[in-house]
Amino acid sequence: MAAAAESPSSVRKVVVHLRATGDAPILKQAKFKIPGTDKFAKVIDFLRRQLHRDTLFVYVNSAFSPNPDELVIDLYNNFGFDGKLVVNYACSMAWG
Amino acid sequence: MDVLHWDGTISVKYFRIGAFAFAQNWENHNSGFPPWSWVCPKHHWLASPEEKGYLSWEKICISRPNEEDVDQISQIDTREEEISCPGNEDVIDDAILVQSSNRELHYYDFHIVYSSTFRVPVLYFRAYCSDGRPFSLDEIEKELPACSAKELSKSKWTFITQEEHPYLKRPWFKLHPCGTAEWMKLLFLSDAAKPKFEVVLELYLLSWFSVVGQVFGLRIPFKISN
């Protein structure tokens, strides 16, 4: 597996690609690096702010929706490929 | 079956197969958690034989972390109080799943029941304290993670409803299933490599539960999905 990019401060960063699915808008800035020790909640909150939406459906490949408390590095190790973690998002989440 | 044209639903027969796969995977990879069990009611004459049965996961304690919980089965760093973004006053609610405790804790029973109307699994649940007293939805709402509580206040009657458990004939709460097919479709069809139907079937309930479990702050160890 390709290693995540390393920054001078030696905090291992993970490359995240945000991918619009369903009818979600595509972000201008869809790729960024985030410290692996950050929680997935940071990615979700970033998406919420960029899309101005409270309710988002966020998931990774293998048809899995991670808990916001998961560490980004753990998600990368389990679901990452090609040196990045692809995070899919959709706006059309509905319960009832 | 053509996965590309799949509508996100499953038949009752595939629900049963998927339920067994889910329970088996859960037990194989989840030594810390109680297992799911399949319940087959004997005298449910209204359903045809292949429709009988549901998955059960009972007496689950979900509690917020505090200093005394450090030695419990814990998946989070209890020293860290995380603020998720500037200006956000909410602390992320981390739920710890524990099997037993001497403290006064709140217990949850979860049942996964097939809905023949929507052709998807539905999560029924109830909460109670150690003396058996059932909790109202207001009391449950106080324990949910912040985003679930917000969803509840926003869409009170389309998110969680109270109705008669289809087998037990007593009032239980359930997560509304009518959006389920749509997000199940998204979950599986967004992979660049379209999955085979057998894979969909094997993972269906795990994927479904990774979404609904978050309502309660449950963390599913993703070892299971690999």
From TrEMBL, chain A:
<keyword id="KW-0833">Ubl conjugation pathway</keyword>
<comment type="function">
    <text>Ubiquitin-like protein involved in cytoplasm to vacuole transport (Cvt) and autophagic vesicle formation.</text>
</comment>
<comment type="subunit">
    <text>Forms a conjugate with ATG5.</text>
</comment>
<dbReference type="Pfam" id="PF04110">
    <property type="entry name" value="APG12"/>
</dbReference>
<comment type="similarity">
    <text>Belongs to the ATG12 family.</text>
</comment>
<keyword id="KW-1017">Isopeptide bond</keyword>
<dbReference type="InterPro" id="IPR029071">
    <property type="entry name" value="Ubiquitin-like_domsf"/>
</dbReference>
<protein>
    <recommendedName>
        <fullName>Ubiquitin-like protein ATG12</fullName>
    </recommendedName>
</protein>
<dbReference type="InterPro" id="IPR007242">
    <property type="entry name" value="Atg12"/>
</dbReference>
<keyword id="KW-0072">Autophagy</keyword>
